[in-house]
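Dear U.,

For the methods section draft, I wanted the exact inputs and outputs in one place so we can describe them consistently. I've listed the two proteins in the order they'll appear in the manuscript figures. Please don't edit the token lines directly; just add comments below if something needs changing.

First protein:
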Amino acid sequence: MSKHRLLKNVLLDAVLAAAGLVVFALFHHVLPSEQQSLNIATVNPYATVQTASSQSVSADSALSNDDGSGEEGYDFTPEVYSSGSAVYSGSSGSSTRTSSGSSKTSSLKSGKSSRSSSSRSGGSFSGGVNSSSKGGSSSAGSTAVESDLTPISQKFSDKYTDTVVVTDTSYTSPDISISVSEETTSDGKVTYYIADIYLRDITCFQTAFANDTYGSGYRDSITDMVLLSNALVAVNGDYYGNTTEGVVIRNGVIYRANYTDCDVCVLYYDGSMRVIKGSDFSVDEAIADGAWQAWTFGPGLLDSDGGIITSFNSTSRIISANPRTAIGYYEPGHYCLIVVDGRGESSGMSLSEMSRLFNGLGCKAAYNLDGGNSSIMVWQDEIINNPSGGGRESSDALLIAEVNKDA
């Protein structure tokens, strides 16, 4: 009898131990752990802490970038590395796009408009606050030498207006100045569009997700993302949903920080922008330096001094002439977005041609985003370029929008 009781006790202990191991494994390896909060209110006085939404759906089809820009689509559950965001009412905005004492100029669709020469003035930064300590650089990376610490809120005062003023090719307000132009290369073979942008508040430089949701399988038109965000101008982003690789930091929230061998582009709260070799990217440094946005695509298009480069961290398929979308950086508070038409009357640009273009504009850093059929620029709620193949939906967009700091 005692032997049976002993055996019974041994079996009961074994069952309890096994149950304990199952519970331990469940909580430590299967169920999602609590998200780490990143409080960036000390970087931006308007910031508040918010938990990032982490959702996913199965991709209903493979997402292929026809310019060789990425892998096929993945069905994955996004892992939020840490979170904390500056929350603004960008959808409502603090201003409306109504003309105020200004006559409309000729439409971009009917002809080109001249762009202010100030966009060619160059800048004094090639990186961010304390960027000399930021790790690594590639052929297109940058190690900043600071020469001007003036906050962007105090720069370019002549670019802004006390009230909102809108024309067919420009928009100005107390915080934003945008001029958009259609350009043609000297040989007449390539048409491209430039949005020249000055910002008094870096949080006006925003990003949007398809369906306002982070995750794989979400796609939407850039126009719909513009309408949802009340954006003034927008271009397609890095199509983050097409891969599980790399860094996704959007509007102050870190959604993903996985390893990548692609160049990473980071826009910081101080208004500076830097291109970093993927293997040298540190999310801890990004947090410490105040990252506001970060994209994983590339490659970078200029060297650390804003010079032309001919060797790129990319494949031959991407290097060759294609429709393009890219972002340029002059100095904190001054940027440009460029979309190049291709595969039609306009022949597109190679990465070398893009490098020469941004260097000629005076940019100190520049970064290639998703291209091909994705390359779209929306201005005043309308697509102004001629997207290859009629364009395609994307998982995200870069945009400029008014923010309501009182919300």
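Second protein (the one for the lower panel):
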Amino acid sequence: MIKVQDLHKKFQKNIVLSGVNLELKESGIYSILGPNGSGKTTLIKSILGMVLPTKGSIKINDKSIKAAWDYRKQIDYLPQIANFPSNLKVKELISMIKDLRGNSKRDKELINLFGVEKFLDKKVGTLSGGMKQKTNIVLAFMFDSPILILDEPTTGLDPVALIHLKELIQKEKERGKLILITSHIMSFVEEITDEIVFLLEGNVHFEGNISELKKQTSEQNFERAIASLLISNHV
């Protein structure tokens, strides 16, 4: 469904991506991990068309995204930081996004699930971090696209909302979606992910499931296995 070939990106003299190759054929939950500066955000924004690669190609369902835009209708995106007009009420924001993307049959269900109805009349600029994230989750999940990209989705969530998010992600996987996640919360990643893609210095240094990662690093603990990847690639 997503194929990345020999992807390079350079910002002036700073090399961010250095020949990334990645092929995600099937539905499932894929976690893109790596330290700050490893290229995770640039890779995601390249897939979304928000960053133009210096070299290489990206295909969605065997079609190049270069000079295209309509492929984005197949992707729902939850950004790490969403900058919406602060003077809009939450209900106005949801209505505006629906007007832009088309009607949603799931918004009321998601609003109820995450308790967003309690602050629909509040202005976006007055929301707490957790309220903003719940609103962002509603916006990301309410259009039912086949690809979901979630950048640090757990930020600011209380334990109940986190449980709802994990259950929601699993349901979307069962419905055949391809889900890309970035997260610094290793317990969340370990619980929910099918495949790990580990980026370091702009390239893929591991791709596989958690059991394979533990076997490769001779570590039984997931966080220690990730740390082992970091250490072995810096020696």
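Candidate sentences for the figure legend, describing the second protein: The longest helix spans residues 159-174. The domain at 2-232 is CATH 3.40.50.300 (Rossmann fold).

Thanks,
Y.
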